[in-house]
Amino acid sequence: MPGFLSTVSLEPNALESARLRMLSKGKSYIDLTEANPTKCGYLFPQEILSAAATHYLSQRSYKPDPRGLIEARRTIKTYYSKRTPSLEINEEQIFITASTSEAYHLIFSLLCDSGDNLLAPDPCYPLFDTFALESEIELKSYRLIEEKNWQIEYDTLCTKKDARTRGMLLISPHNPTGAVITERSETLAQLTLPLISDEVFAEFTHHTPSAPPLGALYPDTPVFHLNGISKMFALPDLKLGWIALNDPAYKIFGKRLEILNDAYLSASSLTQSMLPVIFEKGLSFTQTMISRVTANVRQAQALLDKSGLFDIKPPAAGTFIYPRLKIELDDELLALNLLEAGVLIHPGYFYGTSDGTHIMISCLPPNEILTDGIKVILHYLKQV
Predict the structure, then answer these.
(1) CA 112/CA 102 separation, integer angstroms
(2) Whole-model pTM?
(3) Residue 82: CB partners within 8 Å, gap ≥ 6?
(4) What confidence tens digit (pLDDT) does each residue in 218-252 have?
(5) CA–CA separation, 285 and 283 (whole Å)
(6) What is the mean pLDDT of the chain?
(7) CA distance 115 to 104
(8) What mean pLDDT do residues 213-220 have?
């Protein structure tokens, strides 16, 4: 049978199978993989959403724009002008989508033909493999150096590019390591590749002053900035993302991206109309959320450091920690045994990490749940 994923097994992996068996037996566990903010107590204020929706609902009218509603794009333009460093773009350089995932689909279609490739970090969020399969392209890995706080191994980048390389994925802040790109690299600039900058965790900085928009670091290189309200405002259910192009990207790709986005028009007019009020009145909620996550990150680091069992590179930003065990264990077996002990984590191999034993812990859950989960992890490991 031809088509998407027609030749691979769709059965759950060993960890998911074990989790489902636990649930079927009525057993519970502490979930330290949760990435959905609405399941961790982060609920955007209802009164702001109601106020934001009132004007549109009182004057409903569908006026589609291939770039998105102008009021929403002006809000996003202002957001970039206030970033550190500032990125000056105009409304025409912003394309609103229903999600960052849709933005990836559009950009992969824009840049690549079947059989082309993009450079992607190792480790990397596994969803990108699905995007690549859907687009019939290859992801070629470039290394992030753990010993240097997961910074890019720039010295070998030129060996990764070939005649069919069409761009480079840069996740900053990175998922799951929390690494942030803060400086320009001439080696990267000389690749002359379009840069796809995933910055959905840009607000969640812990050990760095800011996560710069890469278009400000690479003003002469085409840069696509991908972001949205899912993480920034804990509003994954309202489904709104965007692609912001710097000047070189817009000059080369703007007209074709407009045609692509016009073919879908996926973003809700209601959510787009709400965006100015969400930004105007919702940033205090975002700051409260960031403070809680930062406190959780530091608490998790302190507990793991004190145990002496882990080597931790403090995440500069993001909502995860990605520590490495000082002893070598089988990733999958460790995750299965920890689940049996009562806590769910993601093993490093989920992200393509093959060097050492890593675990991914989400720092979104409430502090007491996070602390209890880490205590279960440490209790188990001390018995190994």
Answers:
(1) 15
(2) 0.97
(3) none
(4) 999 999 999 999 999 999 999 999 999 999 999 99
(5) 5
(6) 97
(7) 17
(8) 98
Q: Residue 238's closest CA among 63, 73, 111, 50?
A: 50
Sorted by where each starts, the structural domains of the chain and their CATH numbers stand as 14-43+284-382 (3.90.1150.10), 46-281 (3.40.640.10)
Q: Per the structure block, which two tokens stand in for 188?
A: 């990267």
Which of 60-64, 74-78, 139-143, 165-169 bottoms out in mean pLDDT, i.e. has the lowest?
60-64
